[in-house]
Q: What sequence folds into this?
């Protein structure tokens, strides 16, 4: 642009024209402040900031940048984007644009959200718009988004609200996503709670650097042209009191391979993915509020299915892959019920849980629900219900609780419906007053089923409705709680048969209880019960002693049902090569020995009825007989167990029997 001379009206048109040309030629070469970079049609130009104001063409090497020109902020420079300067800003105030933007090493760009107005149009936002050439933030560089309650200098609100949001939009052409690379720092803050910050991209935001949400609300929103992909390999932090919201549709994702530290609030909306593939999430859980999907494989953290009051319904989120150890997923039915969908229509593989999944149905809320593909549990699955029916948690998937896996029911009911099955090879704990309801499906127990009993009317139980089956096996472990001490012979309903059936028997029943299968076919209210004081008690062992050729001990069964025992005598051979140098009760090696080996020289198992006592003789086997013949005296360790529990361990001496003298005829 050029500056114009002003001349009086001249009578002769020719003279006027000549004078106009003269003024043009004499005009200054200085650029107009509103000059924009204007490359030839179909090309992209470039302009470099040389100091001053973003909106002043004089402060750029090739005019102010626009959508046809890439902008460069050189190393160490600083520029604030607030309001455009000079006249001619109608429809373009509080904004700046570039086809692409590079912020050099150590440089700073501040997008300051303020209010201003032009010709009756009032704006409460400042927006930096970058096109398909993308945005690069160099090492040590800073992009600072500052929402404020300020009104730009020289403007009066005149009925418009003061303050404004700070925004960055990066939008490629359809089918040509843009790339944002942050090797420096992106900072967002707000000094007025009425206004927030946004960073909106069609394309990929790659963050090996640092993103810090210091205050206010930071929103990541996808552009209409296509999905928004965030790849975090650096550091992403949300301060206490600050909030982060990612609002992005189909195909959008946040991949966390770095650090995500959430001391504030982090929420996801719409049908995007969170991909947890090795990074860590710390602090408060990331909240899924719509139909998002957690694609899980590695990395600690916590994630919660919930909702945003008056904004979203209860979450209907998805989960695929493996929940790693150290990670927690919370399904919070605090609204009208939250649903965790395992797998997808194209990925029906079982979901593996090595971490923790919490189903929470709080009082006044709704059910927490799991549906979809099979759940293979190696970690912990918790079900907590804070109210009475119809409030419950729902398990609508096949559950395989592997050896080492644990399922805990705390209050209320866990409903295994739709004919689904549970296979328990680990541990299932059902707390006092809690019920595992099986409707039309099956529960197979080869592990441990622990039922907590707090009183005669408060115990954990299983309820089988019509067509349901319980395949008994493994261990049934009733456990008395809260110092409750029922009378011996007191019976409790462990498995209620409301049209269902039980097959088989438990391999063992612990805790001083015995199983009662006699009520399964009762005409009314059939059940499988447990009787206190009817379990297998531990015998009392005394008088363990050695003798000539054998050992003896006394065993007594004073209460309960039949007592069982297993007694074993062992010695340690001290070897040099294959030669046995000595034998002893302990494995402590002799000085000259090169090896030791524990060998069993006697064993005996048996049982006693209640109230009975007996003296048991532990005879030597052939190995023991040979060792006694060689060494004439053996120090023997005698161990006595009941149900794999050691109840006595004693060292005794077994001597060579004396030979009987032949009688003369």
A:
């Amino acid at each position: 642009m050029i500056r114009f001379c002003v001349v009086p009206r001249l009578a002769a048109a020719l003279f006027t024209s000549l004078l106009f040309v003269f003024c043009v030629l004499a005009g200054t070469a200085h650029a107009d402040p509103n000059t924009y970079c204007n490359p030839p049609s179909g090309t992209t130009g470039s302009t470099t900031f040389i100091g001053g104001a973003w909106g002043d063409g004089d402060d750029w090497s090739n005019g102010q940048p626009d959508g046809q020109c890439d902008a460069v902020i050189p190393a160490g420079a600083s520029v604030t984007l607030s309001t455009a300067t000079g006249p001619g800003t109608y429809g373009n105030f509080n904004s700046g644009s570039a086809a692409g933007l590079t912020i050099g090493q150590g440089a700073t760009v501040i997008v300051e959200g303020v209010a201003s107005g032009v010709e009756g149009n009032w704006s409460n936002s400042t927006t930096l718009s970058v096109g398909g050439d993308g945005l690069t933030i160099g090492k040590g560089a800073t992009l600072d988004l500052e929402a404020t309650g300020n009104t730009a200098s020289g403007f009066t609100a005149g009925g418009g609200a003061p303050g404004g949001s700070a925004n960055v939009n990066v939008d490629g052409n359809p089918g040509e996503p843009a790339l944002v690379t942050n090797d420096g720092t992106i900072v967002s803050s707000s000094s007025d709670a009425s206004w927030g910050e946004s960073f909106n991209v069609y394309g990929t935001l790659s963050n090996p650097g640092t993103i810090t949400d210091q205050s206010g609300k930071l929103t990541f929103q996808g552009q209409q042209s296509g999905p928004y992909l965030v790849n975090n390999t650096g550091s992403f932090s949300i301060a206490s009191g600050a909030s982060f919201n990612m609002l992005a549709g189909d195909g959008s994702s946040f991949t966390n391979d770095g650090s995500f530290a959430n001391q504030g609030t982090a929420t996801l909306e719409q049908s995007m993915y969170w991909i947890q593939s090795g990074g860590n999430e710390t602090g408060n859980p990331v909240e899924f509020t719509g139909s998002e999907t957690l694609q899980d494989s590695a990395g600690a953290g916590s994630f919660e299915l919930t909702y945003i009051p008056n904004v979203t319904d209860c979450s209907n989120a998805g989960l695929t892959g493996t929940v790693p150890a150290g990670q927690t997923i919370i399904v919070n039915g605090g609204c009208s019920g939250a649903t965790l969908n395992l797998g997808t229509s194209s990925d029906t593989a079982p979901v593996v849980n090595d971490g923790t999944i919490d189903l929470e149905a709080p009082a006044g809320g709704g059910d927490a629900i799991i549906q979809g593909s099979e759940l293979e549990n190696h970690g912990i699955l918790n079900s907590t219900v804070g109210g009475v029916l119809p409030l419950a948690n729902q398990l609508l998937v096949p559950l395989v609780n592997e050896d080492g896996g644990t399922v805990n029911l705390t209050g209320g009911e866990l409903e295994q419906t739709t004919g689904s099955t549970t296979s328990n090879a680990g541990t299932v704990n059902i707390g006092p007053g809690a019920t595992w309801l099986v409707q039309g499906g099956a529960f197979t127990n080869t592990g441990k089923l622990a039922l907590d009993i707090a009183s005669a009317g408060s115990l954990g139980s299983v309820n089988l409705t019509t067509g349901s089956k319980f395949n008994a096996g493994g261990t049934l472990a009733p456990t008395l709680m809260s110092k409750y001490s029922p009378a011996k012979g007191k019976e409790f309903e462990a498995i209620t048969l409301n049209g269902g059936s039980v097959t088989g028997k438990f391999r063992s029943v612990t805790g001083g209880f015995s199983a009662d299968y006699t009520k399964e076919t009762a005409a009314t209210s059939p059940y499988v019960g447990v009787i206190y004081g009817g379990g297998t008690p531990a015998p009392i062992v005394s008088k363990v002693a050695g003798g000539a050729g054998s050992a003896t001990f006394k065993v007594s069964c004073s209460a309960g049902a039949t007592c069982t025992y297993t007694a074993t005598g062992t010695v340690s051979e001290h070897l040099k090569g294959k030669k046995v140098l000595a034998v002893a009760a302990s494995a402590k090696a002799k000085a000259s020995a090169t090896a030791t080996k524990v060998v069993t020289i006697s064993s005996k198992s048996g049982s006693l009825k209640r109230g009975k006592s007996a003296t048991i003789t532990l005879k030597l086997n052939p190995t023991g007989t040979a060792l006694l013949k060689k060494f004439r005296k053996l120090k023997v360790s005698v161990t006595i167990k009941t149900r794999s529990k050691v109840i006595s361990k004693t060292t005794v001496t077994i001597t060579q029997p004396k030979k009987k003298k032949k009688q003369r005829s």
Remarks:
- The first strand starts at residue 45 and ends at 48.
